[in-house]
Structures are given as C-alpha cells and as structure tokens.
Design a protein that fits this description.
heterodimer; A: alpha+beta; Alpha-Beta Plaits; 2 domains; eight-stranded mixed beta sheet; B: alpha/beta; Rossmann fold; pyruvate-formate lyase- activating enzyme; six-stranded mixed beta sheet; four-stranded parallel beta sheet; 20 helices; about 15% strand; binds iron/sulfur cluster
Chain lengths: ~220, ~625
Amino acid sequence: MRAWVRIGKKNRLRYVSHLDMQRLMQRALNRTTLPFAWSQGFNPHPVMSFASAMAMGWTSEYEIVDIRMAQDVTAEQVTKEMAGALPPDMPVYEARLVDDRKGAPMALVESAEYRILFESPDPEAVFGAIQSYMGEEHVIAMRKTKTGEKEADIRPMTYALNRQEDGSNAVIARLALTEKATLKPDLLMQVLASRAGTQAEGIRVHRLCLFGAGGVPLMEL
Amino acid sequence: MCNVSDRVDGLLSRVEKPSRYMGGEFGSVMKDPEKVDIRYAFLFPDTYEVGMSHLGMKILYHTINKREDAWCERVFCPWVDMEQLMREENVPLFSHESRTPLSEFDFIGVTLQYEMSFTNILSALDLAGIPFRAEDRKNGPILVGGGPCAYNAEPLAPFFDFFDIGDGERSTDEYLDIYAACKKEGASKEEFLKRIAALQGVYVPSFYDVEYNADGTVDSYTPREGTGAKPIVYKALVNDLTAADYPDKLIVPFGEVIHDRIMLEIFRGCTRGCRFCQAGMLYRPVRERSMERLLELADKLVAATGYDEISLMSLSSGDYSCLPELAKEMVLKYRERRVRISLPSLRIDSYVKDTLAETQKVKKTALTLAPEAGTQRLRDVINKGVTEEDLMRAVGDAFDEGWSAVKLYFMCGLPTETDEDIDGIADLAAKVRDRYFRVPKGQRAPGLRITVSVSVFVPKPFTPFEWAPMLDMDTVIARQKRLKEKLSAIKGVDFKYHAPDVSYIEAVLARGDRRCADVLETAYRSGCRFDSWSEFFSMDKWLDAFRACGLDPDFYALRPRDEGEVFPWDVLDCGVEKRYLLSEWKKALRAETTRDCRKGCTGCGMKRYEGACV
Ligand code: SF4
C-alpha cells in the first residue's frame, strides 16, 4: 500500500531546496508513528518519492509525496500524522491511498498549473501579448539545458495561459511537465515580455496543481 | 514602510544560502508577542550553521521558552553578502522566529564561545542600530553574555550590561524573575542590575572600579558602594544534572548545519586536569546525568525530531561511569528505528564493539587521538595522562580491526617546549606508520593515512598556564617549518597547521583587560569581523587598532606573569582556586603530574561550593 500526500510550501519556506525537502520528509516520517516501509540495502531510507522537484524560490499548494507503507493505514491517519510532523508553513491538505500497481506520481504527471507573479515597466503589454502568443502554432525559444542552449518550440507546451483576474500582475498558466518536455514559467514570461517589447522581472512562481493524463488533477487520477 | 519580514524577504533572492535566514523550521517556538512580558533574543555571534550546532543555545532556548511570560528567539550574524545588503537597504538585524528587530527585545543574550567572534557582536549591534557601550543605553535591550569566554570578558566589559557566569539553566530563570518584577514596577535598568548583582553567577562590570599599576598590570577591582556588587563573583552551579532542564524537543534545520543530529549531554565537567584545557577547569566538578534520564530524553528527542543519529556529548565521553551499559542499551533500543549512536571511539569494551559492529556497520572513519605533545616529558608538563604505550595500543587495535586512517592532534608552543618535543611528534608519526605495516599485508586495510594536526597553544585564564607567555610567532613558525621537514620524510603523513597570527590575537583577547575594548571597537570599525574565518582575518587591521589605542599586544600575549599578579579575571571564581592553579603551574614546570581526581580528590577548591564533590 502507498499513500499520496498533498502538501504545500508557503512563502516563508520557498528557499528549501529539493535536497532539503527529501531530508525533511524523511525526518518528518520519523516523527510520525506511520508504518512506512524502508528500502533494502546498506543505507536504508523510507521508500518515498516526490511527484515533481520544485525550483528554489517557488511556493506551492500541490506537492505530492508518495510514501510506501509496510502495513495498512487510513488516509485520515496519514493526513493527521503528517500534519503534526511538518512545519507550520508546510500544510498538509489531503492524503489518498493508492494501490501498489499504480505508477509513480513522477511518471504520471503531464502538466502543471502555475500562478506567475511578475514585475514589468509595462504589465499591460505583457498581458496583451497573451492572445497573439496563444494564436501562434509555433513559438521558438532558446531553452537552457545542462549542456548549453537549445532551440525549442514552446507553444505546444503551453496548454493554457490567462491573465489573473484580480488586478495583480500575474498570469495563470498550464505548462507541460514531463521528462521529455518541460516548459519553465520563467522562460514563458521572458518570451511573452519580449514579444510585448518589454521585460518581466521579479518572477514569483506558485504551483497551483499537477495534472495527469486527460488533464485530471493528480490527486483524482 | 513595509514590515521587516517583507523587507528581509526581498533580500533573500539575492544572497547565497537564503535558507539560513528563512526561519520556520520544525520545532522553532512561536508565541504571541502580546501574551509575553519578556522578549529574549539569543544571539549566536556567528553564522546560522555554526550557531545551530551549539548545545548551549538549545538548552537555554528550551529553558526560557518553558516560561509562559517569556519568548526566546534566535539571532545569528548574517554572512557578509547579506550584511552588505542589509546595510544598503537599511534592514535591521532581526530575530529568526518572528523577524522582530533586535532593538525591540528586552534582552539580548550572547553566547561567548570563542574570542575571535567578539567583533561579530559589535557587528550585530551595529546592524541592529544599538549603541555599543552599555552606558549609552539607558533604555533598550539589556545585553548579557555567557559561555566560556564570559570568564574573562573584560575586553567586552564596556559593551555588556552583565555577564552570567557558569551553568545557565537556573541563573537565567533567576534573573528573568527579577526582570519581570522590575518591569511591572517600572524600575530602571540600573535598579534591575543592582537587584541581580546579588545572584550567584551575575557579574555587572560597570559596578567595579578598576585601578591599574604603573606597569600596566591590574592593581585592583573594587565594587562600587551602593551597587550590591560582590567582591568576588562565584559561578552559578547546577549540582544535579539529572534534575536540570534539558530540551525534549529541538529545532530541526532544513539545510545542513555542522552538527545535524541529536546531542545528548551525558555529563558536564572533566576530572582529568589537563593543564592547557580551560573547559576542564571551568566546568568542574563532574556531574553525570543518570542513565535513566538519558534514555528517557533520547526517546523523547528521537520522537520529536526524527533525527537518525544521537551523539553522546561531554568533554571526554569515555569517562561516563556507565558508558558500556548506556551504549549497549541505546544501540539495541534504536536498532529497529535505524537510529545511529555516535560514540567516542576509545574505551569501549569489546561487547559494545561487537554489538556495534553487528548492528550499525560502524563507519571506519579516521581514528582520532590527541596526544597533544610529542614527548612524555612535555605530556607530563601539560598533565595529559596518556603514554606512548596507550597510544600505540589504540592505533594498533584500530589497524588490526581494519582502520587505515588516523588523525593525531598536537599543540605547538606549550610551556617548556623545545625542538626535541617537536621532533617527538615526527617520531610518534613514524611509529604509528610502522605499527600499520606490522599488520600482515592481506589483513590490513589499504590506504594508510596519518594526519598530524598541530594547533598553536594559547594560554587561557583559569588554567595553570594563565601565568605562561604565548610562544612568539617567529619561533612558532620556525618549529612548524622544522616539523614540516621532518614529517615530509615519512610517507603517508599529512601535516596540517595554521599561521599563528589568529592565535596571537586570540591570546591577547583571552587575557585582555578592559582597555582592550577600545581595540575591539577600532578593529571592528576598520572592517574586522568573522575573524575566525581565515578569508576575513586581517592581522594588519588588528595591529593598527592596537597602535591607534596605544596598547601593546605583546603585553597581553607574550608576557610571563608574576606569581603575585592580579589578573583582570580574578574578580570571578570558577570553582578551581587560584592557589591550586598556581601549584599546578609550579608542578608543570617540574614536569610533575597530578592524578585524575576521580581517583581521589586533589583539592582544587571546588568543594567550597555547596553540594559540589560530596
Ligand atoms: S574538589 Fe576534588 S574531586 Fe572535586 S573537582 Fe576538585 S579535585 Fe576533583
């Protein structure tokens, strides 16, 4: 049996790195009485994985940890215990139990929805660029990779893009997030801004949701 | 103007390691500021990573936060990049928990762990916009210092309102109770200081008049009339460690700090009587925590923190009276939960070793030994009760059992040291190497590594060597060079040493008097901070500061003291009497040893304290 736990990461903790997150989660599990499973081998550790690593500086309300249990538990038990074991700025929203045969969340994620806050000398121009961007079939951008820069067509990786309707300088974007194709919010904003003839800076990314096949949120998949 | 928290937030994306300023760790204590009377900032004058590894802070954090009327928060020194940004953007130094500016606290408690962090204290006050000198702070936070360097904090005396000498578990509560009453009555800071001056362990430097002799030595410290200050301040002492406060929860940092594990203090004090060791004198007598209490604490801490390692702490853990039983119990108990126990590598009986081997896959990290001196004569001078035979047995056992790395720690510049003692270090390293090759080839672990680390000896107050001069830097450098040549002839030996200039300034501050405060301030203003970090230490700036203040650093570091000299720290009593230290100094010069007082009291003076060494 495995448990998926959806947690958040509030502003105060946005600089907790992915490596720190893993250590934190392991210690958090140790603080619970949950019957989680240990890996075999020389250096045993709890068997768990994250749906998707987060960049330093991001906040989120949709991080999913997959934890293997050695004995049966209930979702309520998992939610309650994890909430007590994580720092206050890492809220636990829900947990669900999944079958051992279900794929790892990491392999199931296809896209993510973000709220992207930005600063710009001309925010309206950035918003104005959304329509023409979405009207294109291809938008070629230089993507940074481990080995340097590479051209990529980012338009097909942009599933939805809208202005946040509350007057703040933010867009809501649903972007591809798979091993093969991932569009980073920063790059999208750069492209939008340059198409609008301005800049977008001070970008703050907040993850709203992770989706699997068919655009179904991961926790419902 | 937006609040401090938001402004701090705005800087974080621009600094290295932002998580060290983040706060919000699991286990950090949050309270409603409206519901407490006393806001206490515990300042560790170094980085977050260093401060979060410090046991004393964890204990006091727990002790103060247990009180309903007080909230203790942590404060660390920002690294230079953050410091610069904070200055540029006028962001005041803030507490970790609530990001409250330091200037808004009732107390700033500073732990004085090493002399080379003193400029960081000024840096912290400066960043907080708090005047340096206590006399310029009629209002605002009360600055209190504790920790080992509080035993001679004279170079800091004008900056601090008072020092709390000795064990802080009880004395902190005592002065906070008085403060709470004073606050209610609206009593002045002066009045508060007068009331606490009577407490054991409390030293209010401004209540004493200091007279100097024509030669620059101290003539006298006289308590001022009407202040209630005592002629001698006795350290605060907690006799029963089992009953004393100890945290049963800890803050668990996100990033890696230096000691990222549960620290369990198994006893305080040391009976061995090494003459160079200040901690060995300051923390007398030995007080053990009962095994039952330790097991209870370990249980609570494992559950509350989720750490997978417990380290048993003390000045020499091998001396804990029931170490084998304790280790065995803990190892067996936590096997299931995969919690490792780190133990001192020496003096563990074979049963424990076997249990360890079975259950924990003992990491064969380097075996660490501290002979401290290269010849038996010099080891007798410093009363390091270790013989060459003991050492060879320890390394021999280790090599036989598959270890291949040994670290040997020594000091250079010990009183009476000659070239012969330096050569002795090289001889010892060669013998260790030979011992390794005596293990038959197929059986020994490959890759012999011997590390010889040699630090520069700094004479400290409240040790038998408080009368001794530090060895001048030229001679230190010559001996380091000599040793380097000798060791380079031995294959597989790695030599580690440092330029003696930091130690020289440390030696000045360690035995400095009040006049050195001006030097500290001048040095700080000329840019000195993080002096224990070699990339920031500047000898030139320090020497300039002494010159500017008209003080001769050699007077403090290199001068042999007369038997009758009054020291700046004589106003304090650490338990071990000066007459005892003097007799130890004389014995040292005759290379006579003194036994471990576990084997029979040697009359150090500790028995003058009620309930000690009964
Ligand atoms: S009084 Fe005696 S037993 Fe106690 S610490 Fe001193 S020498 Fe040791």
